[in-house]
Amino acid sequence: MSGSSRLKRKLDEQGVNYSTGRATENFCLIGTPLPPLDKSKDIGEFVPLWKQEVRDEKGRRRLHGAFTGGFSAGYFNTVGSKEGWTPQTFVSSRNDRAKHKASRMEDFMDDEDLAALREEQLTKGVQAQQRDAFETQPVGGTQEDDSLARSIQRALMPPPEDSPGMVLLRKMGWRPGQGIGPRITWRQRKIQDILASGRSLNDINVDKLAEDEDSEALKHMFPPRDTVAPVLPRKKDVHGLGFVPGDGLDSRSRSKSSAGPKLSAGFGLGALNDADEDDLDVYDTASHRERTYMPYDAADRELDDNITLPGRKASTSQRKLAQPVKPATQTFKDGSQVLAGFVLSNVPVMQDLRFPLPDIPAGWTSDPRRVWGRGGENEAPTASADKSSWRNNLTATERGSILGETPLPRAAKSVFEYMSQKDRDRIQSAATNRQTTKETTHTPEPSLDVPFTPADIASAALKGFMPFTTDPLKQARYVAYLGSQAEGAPPPAVLPGQSVANYRKELSDYAKSAVVFKPVTGAMAGRFTSAAVVDTGPKIIEGLYQPVHTSDDDAAESRRREEAQKRDEERERHRRDEEEAVEGSRAHAVKFGMYGALTREVVPWQPARLLCKRFGVKDPNPDIAVETPMPGAVLGSAMVEQGREPEQTPKEAGYESNAGATSTLSENVAPGGRSRRNLDNVGLGEDDDQGRDTLTYVRPSMDVFKAIFASDDEDSDKEDDGPDARHDATMTGPAPGPSRPSTPTPPHLRKEDVEMNTYELKEAPVDDKPVDIATFKPVFVARAAKDVDKDNSKSLKKNKDKRKAKAIVSFADEEEDGGLQIAPTASKSRDSERPKKRRKKDKAKEDGGTEEDMWVEKPPPEIVQTLETVPVQRRRAEEDAGAGAGYQELSADSAQVPSAARARKKAIDFM
Amino acid sequence: MAPSRGPQPLARSLHQTLSFHKGPVHVVRYAKGSAKYILSGGQDRTVRLCNPQLGTEIKSYSAHGYEVLSIAVAHDNARFASSGGDRSVFIWDVTSGSTIRRIAGHLQRINVVDFNADATVVASGSYDSTVKLWDLRAPNRNPIQSLEDARDSVQTLHVGPTQILTGSVDGHVRTYDLRKGELRSDYIGFPVTSVVPTQDYTTYLVMTLDGHIRLMDASSGRRLNDFSGHKHSSYRCRTVFGHGEATVACGDEAGAVWAWDILDATALQPNPPPQVHHKVVTWIEHHPTEVGELVTASADGTVKVWQHPEQRL
Fold first, then answer.
1. How far does A838 lie from chain B, in Å, by closest CA?
2. Left, alpha or beta for A232 (phi > 0: left; psi -120 to 50: alpha)?
3. Any idea of the CA torsion for B260, B266, B267, B270, to the nearest 10 degrees?
4. Is A98 touching B (CB cutoff 8 A)?
5. What residues have CB less than 8 Å from A350, skipping those under 6 apart?
């Protein structure tokens, strides 16, 4: 959005006619004024980059998006023909050799290129201009030969048009052939000349030259010598680009790029693009080239600066200097020939930075004791060094204490400073006591340092895997060590005959294994269960078994021991038998073929919900007793085969016979038969049950909701239950079970037959009594409230709300609230307090929004019924008059009466 | 046939010999429905679909990396499940011959797989002493439920409409009753290799490694009959009901096929039966509808189709 259009719109909104002169009056003193508002387009306004377009001077769009071809070529955009640029077809030069005309650069240039060329020529130096003007071929090999024809031509040809710069320079007193700049003395000019000729000033005495010259020359000022643009030599050798022959590696690295990198020429960079890294000229060597200075920039400059010399000859000579001509056949030191095109470098590639060993004085012997003995001496200098820098090292407090200042009040350092002296003493004594007790426990191994394990790791490892279960002793010591680290218990004592080193090694092993075997912590811990360790194999006794020779006494002893052992074994066997008898009574039963109750074990087993669903079986242990059957015909076929009704709880169904099942079923169905036709049934159509489920509405269990609204895969599976089920039904053929009613009776209906009668009784007075129009208030239920169904919160209040929302005609509140109720009058009084506007809106909504919303008719409460219509109205009118809007309110009331009547009518329709 | 003449004798005449497998054949199953085809799985890691009438091989399913120990055919014959040494249940598409799903989760080889009635659940019993129930509707990696009551390798499994029967080497037949929500474990006392219930699920046949086949009452766990005579001590063999559940047949380790009258438990003639396979008869299956058709699979690498002589006309 541009500024001017925004302004225009604003003016439009304010109703200002901006085409008048007043609106477009311009007070702009600085900057570009906005274009007049009546002009349609603001050309100068800012356009974001992506909206900008590049057009040439003829207004043609030159740059297109990448998807439309980038630079477009062709008839409408570029060179002349419809097909675009076509190369010249081959024409034999055999016959019309004379007609042959060399194509010039300009032949392939379009207007833009020509303009650019012209501009370039303008900006070129004067000499270049002249050269361009005089020479037919500005670029070419003929430039170099200074032929007689050229000089004649140059003399005869009229001088070219001066460039503006030249004109200016002329006006400033410059002549062609002179250099630009202030006039200089003869001496300076001489120095320039010397520099230009490539000689050094060192070996030439300029003043002596001046003496040689006539004194007249010294009196004048001379124009400086003309500056010649450096002519870069053509590349004629076979070296790589940028390679300077004879340069070493170190000299290359010294050169640094001063200016910014040069961009590569050619396509790729548009007018709107920024230079990228990729666009840099890879072959840009100019930046690496050493900077060149002109000898005429300033007369006195450092002598060691590189100087480019004027004139072709000078430059070539310099090149020759740079590239020393070596004899063609060079040889390495070992006699082998240097490759053609290579020269031996004079400078070695790497210079040794070795220093010769110092000369050891004769008769010197090493005596390290001299150095060792100097330890005391060494102290002194450091101390003195400290003294020298004492000023820096002292802190403010130290300095203050030196100066005898009273220390500044500052924050106390520790908690102890806040304590009373008594407390401090008590803590001190406690600490010392503890210290002493600890020391007493530690005294047996004073030199032993127990390897440290962090308490948390130790306690974790205590809970985790025990690595030394095979060796109980080691295990106990491991546990003891962990306990010592975790809770501060004493560490395991040194075993008798165990060296301190061994002890330390053992404990460090424990520390390591504690780190290794500590259970994974945090979130990972729950993912693994450590397997029960069954690593309690027999302990292997090392070495050979050596039977012990026993004497007679020993024999008696052993006999006694054997007897005891035997007794033990006996007892053990007996115990095992008993166990077997208890545990393996089934095995005995099997042995005697007594299969049955003895061999059978029945335990409760909870199948997974999903499994029950897949098998089409009701969950045997549902959480809630009341549960509607699973829809699904697998269930139907399977169940009916078994002669069981899925609705029945397993306890009552058990393994009943077919007949029993059918009888219960018929009993269940019977009360639903349409036998009675009384006044209550009128309007229910053929279906007696219509509306009854809303009367006896019992909120179904959560499982039903889950079965319907479950979000996981179960939900999607429900869809394909149908066809499969049908398939199954056909597979299994006609079911032997009882034929089921086409519309299954909901289970709660059967259960609550008795209750239903009471509901009917309750319902009766509502219908019979003539409804008081004034007090009969429809309850407005927004449709949005219906969507709450999915919320499965169990709070009673919410349930009530839901029930209200669910049924169109709802008497749910009757059971809940124990009586008839309508929307309370309190809401009315609240209405009157509301702002008028809101009320108006509500009214409009009530009147107009009946199609969208639903009316729920509710019988009026007894309190309301007892009241007269008029007093209510009057009272409300009074209230409203107090509020200062009696008229509106009255009209609203009068509007409400017919609406109530309408609602009444509707309610009658429902009956 | 008049009832006075006793039960229909077992089909004893060889109709076809299918020797497509290159090693022991562990399992052979009839297709569902009219059961015109048989699927056999063997040590050569393939499952082969054959026509038992013509004795021709129709298709070979090879994706298993280990032996195939069990096959279960879905109710619609569109899929079948196979399992074996590679510790996963393979669900195959019959026509395309590719695996639809490979259910890994057992820690050991899977001895037996079975579908439920509408092939929404596949149960797998494994050497790792668990039975896992897998949901085929949802691509869930975890089983619906894992039955870990067995104390030893689960050798056999039958999934009924509302119950799952498992037989384990620990000598128990466990009946998981979904409807009652209880587990009835009957202690047989010997490693169970085969459990086959009758169609009404009131009785079931148990074949154990002590060389006995017992007919058990499912409701009380009492033994109704005991069939013996065959040689069965170390291999997994199978027993089946004959046609109409009037006879009990089994293949034994000597390569013979035995048959008994279900009521008086007398071995049907010929007694003892001739050896029809060179090696142990690993699997026997009676045709679900045909009166006298029987297939046996053996470790000698053949699957033999048996029929009554008059049927061959």
1. 53
2. beta
3. -120
4. no
5. none
In 3D space, the residue among B140, B309, B32, B243 whose CA is nearest the CA of residue A713 turns out to be B140
Q: Is the dihedral of CA A624, A629, A631, A633 positive or negative?
A: positive
Q: Per-residue pLDDT for A510 more than 60?
A: yes
**B177 contact A CB<8A:** yes
Top residue of A529, A612, A615, A726 to mutate, by most chain B CBs within 10 Å, is: A615
Residue B10 covered by a domain? no
Please give the pLDDT value at position A298. Answer: 44
- Contact at 8 Å (CB) between B93 and B66? no
Residues 247-286 of A with CB under 8 A from B: none
Question: Which residues numbered 586-625 in A keep a CB inside 8 Å of some CB on B?
Answer: 586-587, 589-591, 593, 595-597, 599-608, 610-612, 614-621
Give yes or no for residue A593 having a pLDDT over 60.
yes
pLDDT tens figures, A561-583: 778 888 888 877 777 666 556 45
Which band of pLDDT confidence, cut at 50, 70 and 90, is reported for residue B276? very high
Whose CA is closest to A747, among A706, A787, A781, A701? A701
Within-domain flag for B2: no
Q: Which of A314, A306, A333 is nearest to A244 (CA)?
A: A306
Q: How many whole angstroms separate alpha carbon A150 and alpha carbon A130?
A: 13
Q: Given the cut 0.95, state whether the ipTM is greater than it.
A: no
pLDDT, greater one: B67 or A820: B67
Q: What are the CB-based long-range contacts (under 8 Å, 24+) for A7-11?
A: A7/A34, A7/A37, A8/A37, A11/A37
A857 pLDDT above the threshold of 70: no
User: pLDDT at residue A256 above 60?
Assistant: no
Average pLDDT score, chain A = 61
Rounded distance, CA A532 to CA A469, Å? 11
Is B210 within 8 Å of chain A by CB? no
CA distance B218 to chain A (A): 10
Q: Is residue B300 part of a domain?
A: yes
pLDDT tens digits along A634-648:
343 434 334 444 444
Q: Choose the closest CB to A620 out of B181, B188, B221.
A: B181
Q: How far is B146 from chain A (nearest CA, A)?
A: 9
Residue contact A597–B226, C-beta within 8 A:
no
Which is more confidently placed, B271 or A75? B271
Say what the pLDDT of residue A482 is: 83
Which residue among A589, A602, A607 sits closest to B184, beta carbon to beta carbon? A602
Number of domains in chain B: 1
Omega before B272 cis (within 30°)?
Answer: yes
Domain of B250: which CATH number?
2.130.10.10
> Does the structure show a pLDDT above 50 at A136?
no
| Range of the structural domain that residue B190 is part of | 15-307
Q: Where is mean pLDDT largest: A182-186, A402-406, A512-516, A851-855?
A: A182-186
Please report, for residues A247, A329, A752, B66, the alpha-carbon distance to residue B45 in angstroms, rounded to integers and kept in the order given: 75, 79, 61, 5
What's the N-to-C CA distance of chain A in angstroms? 63
Query: In chain B, which residue's Cα lies nearest the Cα of A604?
Result: B182
Tokens of B48: 């082969």
Of A611, A641, A655, the CB nearest to B145: A611
For residues A899 and A724, what is the distance between their CA atoms, to the nearest angstrom?
A: 53
B64 part of a folded domain: yes
Q: What is the tens place of the pLDDT at every residue in A309-359? A: 444 443 444 444 444 444 556 777 777 777 877 887 777 666 667 788 888
**Interface probe with A: pick from B118, B146, B202, most Cβ of A within 10 Å:** B118
- Across residues B32-44, what is the average pLDDT? 92
d(CA B69, CA B28): 10
